[in-house]
Design a protein that fits this description.
- This protein has 9 helices and 8 strands.
- The protein is α/β, with parallel strands linked by helices.
- The chain folds into 2 domains: 1-15 and 102-216, no CATH class; 31-100, no CATH class.
- The strands form 2 sheets. It has a 5-stranded mixed β-sheet, with helices on both faces.
- The protein starts with a strand and ends with a helix.
- Bound molecules: iron/sulfur cluster.
- Iron/sulfur cluster (SF4) is lined by residues 16, 18-19, 22, 221-223, 229, 232, 234-235, 238, 240-241.
């Protein structure tokens, strides 16, 4: 049977291979408030884009955001979560101004695209869901919504953008030539012309080694990765994660 890997599998494998194995073994994974708030902002983006011809006003958008957050299970009493929600809510007027340009022809939101590759003679399927795909000024654009604190250093070398560009270009048979990263948390939007040589080079140097590692079942732990083990969604099932959670508990 052909193996299927998602963009998240690839990104997670690059951080810590073991975390992918644990997730793929069907173990229960933790959810966290940063993810809940991020999902709420993504839902707002979809809500606004779907109403491009009759754009909602900021009061409607804020009411929907509040409703989604209340249903999300986020711990509203946690000061970090409350701060994150406040920052994202403050970015909503900015976000709804950026999105519904009448000149954009939206083609897909959160739609699954796929590409096939061959690793050492074995065919694999790679899937991903770009946040937005649209046509603007005669070019095909993908737009990735980020809701974190960190500002992207470069649109054209962003792994997610590169993987999605390849997936979309192969699926629709037309090159994605522009990419955008929109971050309402920071109220920043970055755009760049996509260089197909960089997309291809990223695939060769970063994506294919990760695919090869998963295909050949190489699953080392990498507790030294930049995001730390305490935030790992399968931390409870890993000795490094358990130790990190204990240390965090001691500090609290
Ligand atoms: S807890 Fe750390 S080492 Fe263990 S799987 Fe998660 S990221 Fe990897």
């Amino acid at each position: 049977m052909m193996e299927t890997y998602s963009y998240s599998d690839i990104a997670n494998y690059l951080q810590c291979p073991r975390s992918v194995l644990l997730r793929r073994s069907g173990l229960p994974t933790a959810d966290n408030d940063a993810m809940r708030v991020g999902r709420a902002v993504h839902q707002i983006q979809e809500f606004v884009v779907e109403r491009q011809n009759d754009p909602p006003d900021i009061q409607q958008v804020c009411a929907v955001f509040t409703e989604i957050i209340e249903r999300s299970g986020a711990d509203l009493g946690d000061p970090n979560t409350a701060r994150r929600i406040e920052k994202c809510a403050a970015g909503l007027p900015w976000l709804i101004n950026v999105l519904p340009s009448p000149a954009r022809r939206y083609l897909a939101t959160e739609t699954q695209f796929e590409v096939f590759d061959e690793i050492d003679g074995e065919r694999v399927r790679i899937i991903g869901h770009p946040d937005l795909l649209y046509e603007f000024d005669g070019e095909l654009w993908i737009d990735d919504l980020k809701t974190g604190r960190t500002s992207p250093r470069s649109v054209i070398t962003d792994l997610q953008v590169n993987v999605y560009a390849r997936l979309v270009s192969d699926t629709v048979g037309r090159l994605v030539t522009r990419a955008a990263i929109t971050n309402p948390y920071r109220q920043e939007a970055f755009t760049a012309a996509l260089d197909q040589r960089i997309v291809g080079a990223t695939w060769e140097s970063t994506v294919r080694p990760a695919l090869r590692g998963m295909l050949t079942a190489v699953w080392p732990c990498n507790p030294a990765h930049v995001y730390g083990c305490a935030g790992c969604l399968v931390a409870e099932h890993c000795t490094f994660g358990q130790a990190a959670l204990e240390r965090q508990g001691d500090e609290d």
